[in-house]
Write a sequence for this structure.
């Protein structure tokens, strides 16, 4: 039965309607459910590992919460985040925010948010939106 569920998600996610609506609908739905469950549920994490990234707006300076798929490393002590923008051209706003303000926080699996420092990975062929998150060192490098 799980195979049928995966196939259904694949079929739906490959439609033009999904491509137009998902970038707007899914993050808002994820943020709302995450807030209502006090950080215990992240809907998108049911399909892929995910974090809630809290960054500072590049222009506004306001706190911005963004649900993101991630690749956890080191047992959840660091994460690879890719600014794919749902496969659309251009960079998502959160990558611009991180380049302007590289200190952010992450909520991983409903655990208390902790501060992290963002590092841009230049050597990967993933493109200019690729970032790597690691906890800040005590020296602040």
């Amino acid at each position: 039965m799980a195979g049928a569920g995966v196939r259904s998600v694949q079929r739906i996610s490959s439609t033009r309607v999904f491509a137009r609506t998902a970038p707007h609908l899914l993050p808002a739905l994820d943020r709302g459910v995450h807030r209502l469950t006090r950080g215990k549920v992240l809907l998108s994490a049911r399909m892929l590992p995910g974090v809630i990234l809290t960054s500072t707006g590049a222009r506004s300076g306001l706190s911005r919460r963004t649900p993101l798929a991630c690749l956890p490393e080191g047992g959840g002590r660091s994460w690879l985040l890719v600014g794919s923008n749902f496969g659309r051209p251009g960079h998502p706003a959160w990558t611009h925010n991180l380049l302007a303000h590289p200190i952010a926080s992450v909520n991983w699996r409903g655990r208390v948010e902790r501060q992290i420092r963002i590092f841009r990975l230049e050597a990967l062929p993933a493109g200019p939106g690729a970032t790597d998150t690691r906890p800040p060192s005590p020296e602040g490098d």
Summary: The beta strands are 50-56, 63-69, 71-73, 78-82, 103-108, 114-120, 130-134. The CA atoms of residues 57 and 68 lie 16 Å apart. The first helix runs from residue 2 to 13.
